Every structure is written in structure tokens, then in C-alpha cells.
Amino acid sequence: MEKVCFKSVDDDREVEFSIIDKAEVSNQMYLLVVEGEFDEEADAECYIMKAVGMDEEDLTFEIVEDENELKALTELFEARMGEEFEK
Description:
Blueprint: E1 3-7, E2 14-25, E3 28-35, E4 46-54, E5 59-63, H1 67-81
């Protein structure tokens, strides 16, 4: 499973996430992630993050908070992952 580290803007600490799935919608990159190690057998809180910027070396992502955008993306990832993805 691919992993990615994000730096928290609140306290500048790095948090590791496992990438469960990726999608591009209308030229916008989205990641479905879970904090830490992904375990298919365990319940975990998933986050949908979107790319919001890019510098010379890194992409910048933020958690999707818009309710309409989040609903549409949840449906997309749910359809792609089937029973593995529960709301």
C-alpha cells in the first residue's frame, strides 16, 4: 500500500497516511486515505483529500469539507471499491 506523509499546518508535525484509492475528477486529484497503516479487517476513519497546490517538489492537499463535493466523492469511491467502502 502506498503511503504519504502530510505536514500539519496547525503544529507542523508529520502524519503518515495510507492511500486506499486515487481519483481525478474534472482535472482535480483526490485521495482516499486512512491515517497510519491500512488494515482491511479493522474499522478506520477515512478522509478524502484534494490537491490544492504544487510547488517545485511537493503537492499540497487538504481535507474535503464541502458537503456537496464530499457526498459526490464518497459515492464515487464507494462505487469504485464496492463492499470494502462503507459510509
